[in-house]
Amino acid sequence: MNAFEKQQWESFLENALGGLQMAAAELRGNRAGYENRRDWFRSKTSGIPRENSVTQALAEVFGRIRSQHNIKGAEPGAIDLRHISVACERPRPRDVGISDMSNPTDLSLVFMKGGELDLRIEAKTVLTDNEVKSQYLGKSGLDRFEDGANPYTVQPFGGMVAYVVDLDSASWSEKIVSGLEAKVGSTRLRSIVLNGGTHAVSNHAFDLSDASSVMKKEVDVVHFVIEIDAKPSRR
Hints:
33% of the residues lie in helices and 28% in strands. By secondary structure, the protein is α/β, with parallel strands linked by helices.
């Protein structure tokens, strides 16, 4: 990736992740509206929002903010979503299945100006320290970015988001960084500053093969946290 491509990606990441955080703030502000929707909670008694429901809600709000930006324009120097599309449960680029047998990505944010950049994000609701290791960093989480048979993405960047219902994003980010250090080691970790916030970035490699060749691929995964609310609140 050359310097221009790197700049394009980092600008895109700032807007994409910034837009998701804007959507999360609006979602929390309209908490009652979402809690009244069917299938918002895991069960009637858990009080924990369903992971897929939160992802869908974020995509809905993100789309509304983008529409506002397209109508009114984005303020200079502010988050600009005008050229970013969002979709849930989008098929992977090399998915070996189709329809009900596919294994789609949770979120796809695509920058459609000056070349298509496609950011695939895996979401995990994290309730305990143990779930950081078993879920967020496990086979159904971060390990998906090293699946050469069905890669989560073939782009230079991907994303991992933790939905958390207690403490705050800074506290959970520290837990995730500690888990990353134990899992991948410090040599495969770096940090990136986006919208004034520091995010961990882990590097992952896999072999991408077709009928005639094997290609070495790498993806840098940006980690971030979104605060959601349980009912009753756990904060």
